[in-house]
Design a protein that fits this description.
The complex is a heterodimer of chains A (about 575) and B (about 250). With about 575 residues, chain A is mostly helical. In chain A, about 60% of the residues lie in helices and about 5% in strands. The mean pLDDT of chain A is about 95. Classes of the chains: A mainly alpha (about 575), B mainly alpha (about 250).
Chain lengths: ~575, ~250
Amino acid sequence: MATSEVVHAHAAPQGFIRKYIFSLDHKIIGIQYFFLALTAVWVGMILSLLMRIHLIWPDANLPLIGHIQPETYLSLLTMHGTIMVFFVLTTAPQGGFGNYFLPIQIGAPDMAFPVLNMLSFWTTFVAFVVMIAAFFVTGGAPLHGWTGYPPLSAVQSSGPGEGLGADLWITSIAIFCAASLMGALNFITTTLDLRAKGMTLMRMPLTVWSWFITAILGLLAFGVLLSAGILLLMDRNLGTSFYLPLIVVNGQVLGHRGGSPLLWQHLFWFFGHPEVYIAILPGMGVASQLLSTFSRKPIFGYRAMVYAMLAIGFLGFMVWGHHMFMSGMNPWSAFAFSILTMCIGVPSAIKTFNWLGTLWRGNVRLYSPMLFAIGFVSLFVSGGLSGPFLAQPTLDIPLHDTYFVVGHFHLIMGVAAIFGIFAATYYWVPKMFGRMMNETLGKIHFWLTFVGTYAIFMPMHYLGMAGHPRRYSQLTELGYLHNLLPLQRFISIAAFITIGAQVIFVLNLFWSIFRGPKASDNPWDATTLEWTTATPPPHDNFGGHTPVVHNGPYEYGVPGAARDFVMQSDPAISPHPAH
Amino acid sequence: MATLSPNLAVRPPRTRDTGGDPPSYGGGNGNERSGNGSSDYGGRLRRARLGLVVGLTAVVMLFIGFTSAMLVRRGLPSFDQQTNTYSRDWIPIQLPWTLIAINTAVLLASSVTIELARRDISRQMALAPVQSIPGVSLGDERRFPWLGTTVILGLGFLVGQFLVYRVLQQQHAFIARNPSNSFTYLLLGTHAIHLAGGVIALTYAAAATWLQRPIESRRIVIDVAAWYWHFMAFLWMYIFVILLIAR
């Protein structure tokens, strides 16, 4: 039985520009996405650092930006949220690791449309530049939060950042939509059409499934966000009244009438909720892959994992109303959205159960990627459990716009997804750059980050239950918040330490890329196709061969096998039917 | 839309590397029958069509967003400052229907001509292996330039839509005057931008003929551009109906 087919190899481009800048190679493009996200995450993290400093030392005079005004604080939180959601949580797992490893894991030589892939990256890059430009224009960055609710976001005169800054913000989002749609198109076509012989759908690694489902979500969600953004730009610049009712700003009646701010919320959250899953699904895929690999056991309930991800993706499109319980909603609609939201708990619980089932009595190897994968599961549970609280209108109404919500979504969407990215980085950097990352530094980084993020976001639930509103810049002016200030101080200090721990990660990453010990082709004894090829993979991924797949993705601890793992391209282990 | 599988089973003539395609092997979708590695032309066509269908889904979602916004906005009451009451502020726009009907006819005609261009290049593809046999000549038959005709008709449609815009401006039916106006401009404008993209794709396809690109590359470009163009006609009919019943 053949394990690979000899095919005609393709020469790699030689010039620096074609090879590294405007490269058509999905691996280079994946690395470009990864470093774009790494840049963005530092920008976003520094913004949060400034916010945390301001909250506990409101009178501090900071270098470069001086004293933080309330409107500056709003700009900081707007840009922090936007940059993190779009340019980190959407860009790194999907654009970065998805681009690099989806084609290799399905045995393809490249993405289906390499030129489109390159365009997709460079469009994302332009979107990032436009977003950052909002800091430097007159009035500065916008104030309307990452959700951009009108009327604040739709009226040019509503605040200092709502002029050109807000226009740049919306334009950047629109460009990002176009880039994401191109990326989604490529991912879907590649997964459907470029799988190697024998790579049936039910033999795809769960990472591939997660990138594929994420791409479908992106395809359906970003078009709607684009439509919402176009309407917002028209309201701002052409005088239309899609979102704006009759409105008075500083005693001046604006020319708008009859529009509805709720219309924006519906369109935005129809995108916004699936976006949450766009951020977290790749993390789920990575966690599944790593838990299986480092427990030396097949993933528990492979098919259930696939169907659970499909169910989460499907339900993700029917729950956008749960962000709007406080916006004025028919109680019957709220009831329907509430029930559907809690339904998402079912596939989520299936996934958690299966992760724990995979770990159960496994031969667990606690390397740093595995630690981050376990950390992902932990944060997914902790962040997810507060979801059913917020899903009920009776509980959401007092908790809405408090720190409870901030704690909830940071744990599940922010940090859990980031842990997925860290896990993927420690796991795949040896394949991408041919060098192992330092284990000791990795473990120090893990423990500081793991304890640190819990120390930051867990107390926020308590702040929220105590009635602490979110997005307030000045806490010292309100008497009833005085007793909560020590907790805010604790959170800020935990944030400083956690941010400091990320320096360890960056040093480890760059030191390892250049100076780390050489990685073998399969340092983790893993089974998927990327570990069958050279490290780092050649231009056409498999060096003139195309693999033929005979086994499922997680064949660990196979009875009677020579090693404790059987790779996907190894000869078939049993009369295992191709599903 | 027609079947996604290529309908030709001829041995393709020698291809030239176009640089923009993945290395020319692999080609499979996980089934045991695939991965033949020798001829990837069918795979490229199938991928291009699949990519187009996926891309059009995004366009569909864009217009679903617009349409739902339109239907919601249409039902909203507006607060009247003078009378302190709520009233409907949606006043249906007066459209130059004759001009729009002519534009529609032009676009539908262009859909027919692009289909003829698509079939023409398929026929050329089928005959290419015969022509490559030494000593065999099919004669230098002159073909009707269906592609060029389509480009001209497409540009004609865009000019027609610009005339609609001019008429609306002359009638003082400005974009911000009324929500019905706003949505009409929005739908016409967004469709025109997408159609202009189609004109660019067709021009590229025509240029590919001049640049003597390999016939299978040309066929893929024309095939995909043709399906896109048909979709634009379909989208226009959808907008036409929306404007007719819900403007």
